[in-house]
Amino acid sequence: xxxxxxxxxxxRLMPEKDGRYFGLTVDHSMARGVMRGLDTFxxxxxDMCAGGPDAITMHKGLAERCFGQHxxxxxxxxxxxxxxxYQPDFDTPVATVEEGVRLGADAxxxxxxxxxxxxxxxxxxxxxxxxxAKELGMPVISHIYPRGNCLKDDARYDWKNILYATxxxxxxxxxxxxxxxxxxxxSFARVVEGTPSMVAIAGGDNCRTPQxxxxxxxxxxxxxxxxxxxxxxxxxxxxxxxxxxxVKSIIHGGYSVKEAMELLEELEHE
Length: 270
What we know:
It is a single chain. It contains twelve helices and ten strands. By secondary structure, it is α/β, with parallel strands linked by helices. The strands form two sheets. The protein has an eight-stranded parallel barrel, surrounded by seven helices. α7 (about 160-170) links the parallel β7 and β8. α7 packs parallel to α8 (about 185-195). It is globular, with a radius of gyration of 17 Å. About 45% of the residues are buried.
């Protein structure tokens, strides 16, 4: 039954036959402060879900209070750890796999920062979550980044350091790994090739325009990654639902960047 539960959840997370994934996140407030778009959380999550993402990640309190009308329609990923503005290189456990089961989540999400003094504790925490999740048939997503205090800032996007992070997550049993994008599909392909788990990217906030975000999405798919998980760019975009649909058109519709931009412009003027 545990195996059946795991398989059922994975099918809901990745329902399309193309094997690709498009996740959204609204788990930023404890980590970064309450930004624009998350001060009106209910409207933001409603607009995101209207675009049809594969899943959305949030903390348990917001899931309990704001996600009910979307339950069973948009898969929920429960965020189980968080860093903070005061401890940016350490993810603290704040929820359990059992709570994910109770909330009807289709995956749990665990943050992990490597390449720093606190790496041992965080890898141990990630391993513990993976063990419990396997026992309960729960898929594990890890947001793992090489941004510990042993690295300079410009090394956080080096493909070798990113591969170190994704490989560590894979070897601990993570099913879907979210990490930094290297900046080009050629180097990110080396990360994907060296990681025996599914890899997706974060980092839409590094883009300044919709076209940059859509191009990055296409480049990531060309590298062999399964998809993307975006948060801040879409949260703060003036018309969230059209932006979600435009990204989805590339991931699941096979649209080019030009076609996705045309779709975005059309939807924004409806």
